[in-house]
Amino acid sequence: MAGFYRANIDYLTQHAISADKRRYVDSTEARRHFLNADQYGKDPFKRIPHNWYDAAAKYTADTLDKYGTVPWTIQYNYYRLVRAFKEHDTTAILNTSANLGHYIADAHVPLHLTQNYNGQLTNQTGIHALWESRLPELFGDHYHYYAGKARYIQNPLTEAFKICRSSFARVDTVLRFERLLDRSFPADKKYAMVRRGQKEVKDYSAGYAEAYQKMLKGMVQRRMRESILSVGSYWYSA
Ligand SMILES: [Zn+2]
Question: Which of 172-177's residues contact partners 24+ apart within 8 Å by CB, and which partners?
């Protein structure tokens, strides 16, 4: 399996972001990338039934769609991958692996678990890209990515909810630390002009990003590593 995936690593890398691109052409795509758990009240993971039909009976399918469907999307794509393997359909195996990997990785990002996904409700707009793009772009070369061996996943839906729950548990820290940093960091040094391809754009300064990274004590690195292990384990189990 490792040989097969390694031989196709360029294709997988290229299609790892296809799910995000689909959002521009398919209005039903966006909801597959998140779960606004905090819309379900306190202790949402005690309330939301795992089974889609049970959850829909409790909240209506429209509500589930509105607040995001990432755990069920992971389950759905997992069984699609199982089918692709059974049919020895190489293209479908690769496409579904890439899509499944994308949704699993999204579920590892704490800000994919809250309605305040970009800090827009607490005057922290931009925090989404700070956490998931700016930090790994600046510091990712020094992260350790060795995640260990894939393990067999007994229940892909239970596992998906477990991932979501552990991401949700970190939402408060992600937002609170940035709020604290914003208060203590010199305001005129918070942003800088940063080179992106041919353009110069305003973004969080390297100093600000570094201070945030320190406060998080390796959280981004850990979530990435857990995400790697999880993606590998889903592929392996399928
Ligand atoms: Zn996404």
Answer: 173/110, 173/216, 173/219, 174/110, 174/111, 174/127, 174/131, 174/216, 174/219, 175/116, 175/119, 175/122, 175/124, 175/127, 177/212, 177/215, 177/216
Does the reported pTM lie above 0.90? Answer: yes
pLDDT (tens digit, 9 = 90+) per residue, 63-113? 999 999 999 999 999 999 999 999 999 999 999 999 999 999 999 999 999
**Domains of the chain and CATH, by start:** 2-237 (1.10.575.10)
Residue 112 Cα to ligand 1 midpoint, Å, equals 9
Q: Tell me, in angstroms, the distance from the centre of ligand 1 to residue 19's CA.
A: 6
> What separation in angstroms does the CA of 12 have from each of 33, 53, 105, 184?
18, 32, 14, 42
Q: Give the distance (Å) from ligand 1 centre to CA of residue 34.
A: 8
